[in-house]
C-alpha cells in the first residue's frame, strides 16, 4: 500500500500528510490509522535521532502511510543510515542549487544511478530481501527537497530539472528570513518566491508541497497546484485540542 502512495506522489497526485516531532510510536500509529498518506519525521528540529526515527516507522508497516525523514543537512552518510532503517523518503533542508539536488539523488539511489552503499538493515529485512530491495529501491524512494532561501528560489529551474527529484517543499519560515521579512508569510516577496517555485514545478509536472491547516488554506493551496500538503503537526493536535477543550469547559463553567 505504501508503494501506491509513492506512485501517487511521483505522479503529482494529491496526498495529505503530517509532521512528527514526538517520540512515541503510538503517534505515527494513530496518524496512519486516521488515513494520512505520509508522515515527515523531523530530525532537523527537536530531539529525534535515527534510532527514534526507526521506532516511529515500525507502526507504519502494512499501511498506506509512507515514512519520510527530514534529516539535519545534506549528509550522504546520514541519508544512507536513515534509508537503511526503513524510510521510504528523504527530505533534505536548505537545498540551494542543482548540485545540491544531484548530491541528494546520488546519496538516495544505488548504482548505477547513484552511490548509496549496500548492506544489511531493516529496509531489506536484515539482508533476507536484499536482492529484491536493491532492484526496487531506486524507483520506490521519494526525494523531497526543501527550498528555503533566496538562492534556492533563484536556482529553482535548475533544481527541478535534476532527474530523480520528486517533490519541492517550500521552507516558508526560513525563506521569509532569507528574503528579509522574517515571519511575514503574506509579504509579496514571500508570495512571489513561492509562486516562482510553483511555476517551475508545474512546468515539470513535479509535485509541489506546502502546509495547510484550515479548509480555506487547503482549498487555496490545491488550487495553486500544491498537491503534497502537510495538514498538521503532532504537537499541534495535542496543544490545540487541549486548548479547545479547556476553553469550552471554562466557558460552560462561567455560564453556570
Structure, explained:
There is one protein chain. The chain is α/β, with parallel strands linked by helices. The protein contains 12 helices and 8 strands. The longest helix is centred in the C-terminal third of the chain and has 22 residues, at 234-255. The chain is globular, with a radius of gyration of 19 Å.
Task: Name the features.
256 residues; 8-stranded parallel β-barrel; 12 helices; alpha/beta; TIM Barrel
CATH topological fold name: TIM Barrel
CATH architecture: Alpha-Beta Barrel
Arithmetic mean pLDDT: 96
CATH class: Alpha Beta
Name the helix and strand elements from N-terminus to C-terminus, one letter apiece. Answer: HEHEHEHEHHEHHEHHEHEH
Number of domains: 1
Question: What portion of residues is helical?
Answer: 40-55%
| CATH superfamily membership | Phosphoenolpyruvate-binding domains
Poorly predicted runs: none
Number of helices: 12
Give the terminus-to-terminus CA distance.
51 Å
Radius of gyration: 19 Å
Give the strand order, joined by hyphens, for the main sheet. 1-2-3-4-5-6-7-8
| Structural class computed from helices and strand pairing | alpha/beta
Major beta sheet summary: 8 strands, parallel, barrel
Principal-axis shape equals: globular
Produce a short descriptive summary.
The protein is α/β, with parallel strands linked by helices. Helix content is 46%, strand content 17%.
Topology (SSEs and partners):
Layout: H1 2-10, E1 15-20, H2 25-33, E2 38-42, H3 50-57, E3 66-70, H4 76-84, E4 89-92, H5 98-108, H6 130-136, E5 142-147, H7 150-154, H8 156-160, E6 167-170, H9 172-178, H10 188-203, E7 207-211, H11 215-224, E8 226-233, H12 234-255
Parallel strand pairs: 1-2, 1-8, 2-3, 3-4, 4-5, 5-6, 6-7, 7-8
Amino acid at each position: 500500500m505504501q508503494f501506491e502512495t509513492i506512485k501517487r506522489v511521483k505522479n503529482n497526485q494529491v496526498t495529505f500528510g503530517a509532521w512528527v516531532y514526538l517520540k512515541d510510536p503510538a503517534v505515527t500509529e494513530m496518524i496512519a490509522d486516521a488515513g494520512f498518506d505520509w508522515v515527515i519525521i523531523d530530525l532537523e528540529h527537536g530531539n529525534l535521532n535515527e534510532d527514534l526515527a526507526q521506532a516511529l516507522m515500525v507502526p507504519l508497516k502494512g499501511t498506506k502511510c509512507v515514512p519520510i525523514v527530514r534529516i539535519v543537512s545534506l549528509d550522504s552518510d546520514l541519508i544512507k543510515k536513515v534509508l537503511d532503517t526503513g524510510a521510504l523518503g528523504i527530505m533534505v533542508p536548505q537545498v540551494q542549487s542543482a548540485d545540491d539536488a544531484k548530491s541528494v539523488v546520488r546519496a538516495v539511489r544505488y548504482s548505477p544511478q547513484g552511490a548509496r552503499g549496500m548492506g544489511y538493515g531493516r529496509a531489506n529485512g536484515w539482508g533476507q530481501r536484499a536482492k529484491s530491495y536493491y532492484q526496487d529501491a531506486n524507483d520506490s524512494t521519494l526525494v523531497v527537497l526543501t527550498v528555503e532561501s533566496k538562492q534556492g528560489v533563484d536556482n529553482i529551474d535548475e533544481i527541478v530539472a535534476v532527474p530523480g527529484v520528486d517533490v519541492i517543499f517550500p521552507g516558508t519560515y526560513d525563506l521569509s528570513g532569507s528574503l528579509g521579512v522574517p515571519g511575514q508569510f503574506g509579504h509579496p516577496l514571500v508570495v512571489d518566491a513561492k509562486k516562482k517555485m510553483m511555476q517551475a514545478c508545474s512546468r515539470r509536472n513535479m509535485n509541489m508541497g506546502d502546509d495547510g491547516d484550515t479548509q480555506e488554506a487547503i482549498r487555496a493551496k490545491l488550487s495553486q497546484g500544491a498537491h503534497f500538503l502537510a495538514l498538521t503537526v503532532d504537537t499541534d493536535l495535542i496543544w490545540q485540542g487541549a486548548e479547545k477543550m479547556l476553553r469550552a469547559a471554562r466557558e460552560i463553567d462561567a455560564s453556570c
